[in-house]
Amino acid sequence: MTEMLNKESFLQKVFNYEENKDWKFEGDKPCIIDFYADWCGPCKMIAPILEELSEEYKGKLNIYKVDTEAEQELSAAFAIRSIPSMLFCPTSGEPQMAQGALPKHTLEEIIKEVLKVEK
Fold this sequence. Notes:
Distance between the termini: 16 Å
Number of strands: 5
Order of helices and strands: EHEHEHEEH
Helix content: 25-40%
Low-confidence stretches: none
Shape: globular
CATH class: Alpha Beta
CATH superfamily: Glutaredoxin
Number of helices: 4
Strand content: 15-25%
Radius of gyration: 13 Å
CATH architecture: 3-Layer(aba) Sandwich
Mean pLDDT: 96
Structural class: alpha/beta
Strand order of the largest sheet: 1-3-2-4-5
């Protein structure tokens, strides 16, 4: 199941950008962060796909959601200008950002290639 993040939980589970200038992943398994808003049509389209993926990759991958309306500072920290935007965070290496409502097969490719996670 996808988990909602606020700034405080983001700093603990993903990246503490207040303490670190360079990327340092805080999590124990790779994750996808979905930056969304309740009024966004494409965000609503991708939500069930992310729920499916969170079940299919349970225990191997975390999927988080950040409400850009409620967490404006967090959105600004990652220069979110269009939604949905997704941040793919491997356990080592740099994160990658993707924008738009990506189809499930594209997300699965990114999970395999960027996050190095197999089903």
